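Quick question, first post here. What does this chain look like in 3D?
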Amino acid sequence: MISLRSLGRSAAQESPRPAQKHRSADAPGIGQVDVALPAEEAQALLRRAAELGVTVNTLVQGAWAVLLAGLTGRDDVVFGATVSGRPPAVAGVESMVGLFINTLPVRVRCTPGMSFAQVLSTLQERQAALLDHHHHSLSAIQQATGLKELFDTLVVFESYPVDRAAAADAGTAAGIAITGLRPFTGTHYPLTLMAGMDPYLCLSLQYQPSALDRATVDHIAARLPDVLRLALTAPDSPMALADVLAPADRDPFRSGPADTRAPVPAATLPQLFERQAATTPDATALVHDGAALSYAEINARVNRLARELAARGAGPETVVAIALPRSPELIVAMLAVLKAGAAYLPVDPKYPSNRLDFILGDAAPALILTDTATTGALPGTTAPILHLDDLDVSRRPGGNPATTDGTGPRTLAYVMYTSGSTGTPKGVLLDHATITNGVHHLAHQTGIRAGSRVLASTSINFDVSVFEIFTSLCHGATVDLVQDVLELTERDTWTGTLISTVPSAFAELLDQITPTTSVDTLVFAGEALPSTLVERVREAFPGVRIVNAYGQTESFYATTFTTDGTRTGVGSAPIGTPLPAVRAYVLGPWLKPVPPGVVGELYVAGELARGYRGRAALTAERFLADPYGPPGSRMYRTGDLARRNGDGQLEYAGRTDTQIKIRGFRVEPGEVEAALIAHPDVTRAAVVARDAPTGRQLIAYVTGATVDGGTLRAFVAPRLPEFMVPSAFVVLDRLPLTPNGKLDRAALPAPDPTVGTDAYRAPRTAHEGTLCALFGEVLGVERVGIDDDFFALGGHSLLIVRLLARMDAELDVRVGVRDFLTAPRPGDLAGLVAGDTAGRAPGSPAVVPPSEARLAPGLRFPDAGGFGAPPRHVLLTGATGFVGAFLLRELLAQTDAQVHCLVRADAETAGRARLHAVLDSYGIDVGADAERVHIVPGDLAQDGLGIGAARWGTLQDELDTIVHAGAYVHHLSAYERLKAANVEGTRALLQLAAAGRPKRFHYLSTLGIFGHGPTPRLITEGSAIEEARHMAADGYLASKWVADMMVKEAVARGASARVYRLGRIWAESERGAINPDDMFCRLLVSCAALGCHPEDTALQADLLPVDIAARALVALALTDEGPESAAVHHLHHPGKTGADAFLRVFDEWRGTQSEPVGLGTWLRRLRQASEAGRDLPFLPYLDVFQQHVEQMENAAGAVDAADLPSDTYRNDLTLRALERLGVAVPEVDERMIRDFWQHLEATGELG
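> Answer (accepted):
Ran it through. Tokens below.
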């Protein structure tokens, strides 16, 4: 499916302003752009369509498909098309009066080998075969496919006749001159291609300004005629030769520096080293274990060994293996092999013997350089072995040997073996020219020069070592040779120019080495560089230069780079622009450049490896002819995904072969890993996806001395969405790493389902036996004991519903999701349902007592004065939540205060990154006001907010206002699970308010605390809350009620506190930004997916846009006069909106037809979808609403449940206060609803 986000990114690169993403005053209604198609070309297209045997409609549809494919980098696209909807099988259908028109999906494949004529003929055949099915509704097709969205562009071909002569005659008779007729038919799709035949082909594009801006549509309109001309100029040419991009987009490497074709230094590595040794003979070249060697000393030793190697047959294109410990002899050996004209083969004696055996056999070295201590680790080989510790080369001359015949920049320099996707290592062949190009330019980028000190910590089996060693020795720097980067933690001090390492390894070292290390440049390579690490590094080493290097063994070390401008924020730092003499292309499936902003596969060209030793087929597969370079040049297919951003820099976007998706949810492993690492006993964490009988599962691997799976599950469950909580936790002594320090995912063990669970206990009763069997059936586990936890065995919300349905069928017992969460083990569950064969709810539900709200007897609050005084220092909780994010924006906009945000994070940098990610997701830009935002790492659920005594002391004396918007929101969790964050967190904040400087306290509560009474009630700002009762199973509302009561008691003790009870907080009024986890939002998304919606009026909601709620709350908080200064305000919309209003707009927008049904029917369809494997977002609430239906049916008897009375909420006092404060509450109109749907589409929540 075409993605308008891709087109929007494309437009953003071509104009100084980004593509418009929301409706504004200058972009109302529907926009239209005419497609410039000269009349003579239009007439020629009619003739060509006839020659090709296709209709003009097919010609237009085929051109649109090719254009979409070119703009999105895909070869399989889907768009909509209108059809007459009059099946020929119906007699007289053409003479029937009425609108039969229908909209159907059109799928077109445009493979590179197909010609335009073949695309058209194939499309015509497919469309002809579907003529008898044109009457099928779009909603039925959506339901059949199970897809929430089929297309977002439409082709409308209008072929009705226009009698221009009659119109002219009528105009003449009326005395009116008609100068032109222009039909206009609007659609609700973001982009529509309108085609007409009056009198010849004319085209126009209609667009929704809320989805695309004019520049984007102009760009598309300019490209369409180019595609149509293919039918005239090259109908039989392969689609691979078609070019539909703008001239600026055709340049695949336009973001590179001006000297991307700079010449390679015409020298070999030993020649560059010799020149440097002659320039600075007495400078220190190498230090190791306290010993130092000058350039002259190193050069003399290298020369003697090089002569010895040459005498033993080493020369151009021969390979000499090096298996030595990290000592000066290793560096001497590497240079000596190169000076002899040969290529070196690094061999790590620590590798498994079978791998060493393969490498030595495959590379067939002419000689092996080692020492007597290392020989024993090498496998048997026929190659001659030379022990350096037994070799006397003192009689060899120490002067530079003459250049060996046949040695030059294109001579082989080394053979380096990397892992292969098939498990067989492959030897990459690199010549001197490729390496010297990188060495030459990277020295400038990283600041390596004469006198620099460079830490050489990487094994010579990886090309990072080539950068560390040869860039230094060719530019007069000192190589500080260490065993590995961990050695920095053992030194009292280290001062130098450059450290090169893998980001994940350095992240672990950073805190340890900061006090003892001084460094000018840090070079990161090998994996994505998190922006949070960049921020940590800058804090630890102010002024440090940071280089984010990207590359492969096949293209040497750093193909692209990002220097001092590396941005901070969320995600990973960009990988930058190509080095000189290197080109980087972002290409689509036809090896065509994709537009800026669109993700494609990254190809690297210019200075590359020769290929793979003895692997001609693999070399041909990965090293392709470069269609954009000089004749004979090649490009390397990296397998990485990338895009060009608005600054012209490359951004890494993942691999072509990896993506974690769990039950339809996109999961970023790093977010789960961050939640795990937040546990104080976890030292490292890795999260991967594994296939299991119940589907794909997240598995967490952690290291830590005292952690266990149960503890970690309880720790991360409140911090992550349910689908992101790992199904299994594996505790390891250490995470397996590859020799270059990266996580070795292949070496991670499969989880053992018996580890971390209680010892197996067999069922004792028939009920327990049946439950254990049902657990095993649903979870795909062979043996389940009565103490085995459902979630520890891989269970999740979708499987809960399946299990409860099976229990209902097998045991005739109805158990609610909330009850199940309190008893997730067969033994506990059996006790819950014991004797309940009639399906009655077992036991008496526990009620949360009012005593939970008691404050400490001695707690008293100082007088904070009035609320009208402007705040100077505000503590805001919940800033990373939906309401909290907009509250932060309003606090910054309406006050000059410094805002301290309590954010669940280990450090300020991580907390700021998390906050920025949330703000970005809602499109909130605080601009320069970000300087007034201060991160307070902590956690509402921890004692003392988890901020420590020192920070507590600072805040109690600095703050004058607390805005408590934070809470753990989970409507299916029990009270005990939510008590720590929602109750004890509020208690801690009240204690903070009572300490030190007097403070004003603002608490965000919910209207849900009033619960449900036995009779209908009128609920206003003055309604009492003391008599409300909440079940412990209804944890969220119970915890908010307790906290509300707690604040009420604080007011009685002198606290300057106000309470704001929120109704249904809804999407932002201007752009439709929404919290996708909102229950009503989940309901609507599920309705759209099911093609039906419940009519029950009880589901209507008082939807107050989040930006209006935030603006109102801050305005009320800052006033101290009149009714506005009341202690309690109710923020909800005075009117109600139901699902029908939303689905009506959705149907108009998508061309669907949602069926209104009763709530019971809708829930049954939701359950059926679940049983069919569809994990719709409302599914967790299925059981709760099923109970609602049953209760209503029981209460109503013969009366329609929809007519039962319910509570009435009135907030007249609050509304009048807002009117006086100038805060208007808008109606939830069609425009606002459409923006909501379009935001969901833009963020991927609709599929």
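The two ends are 10 Å apart (CA to CA).
Confidence is low (pLDDT under 50) at residues 1-27, 254-262, 835-844, 1196-1204.
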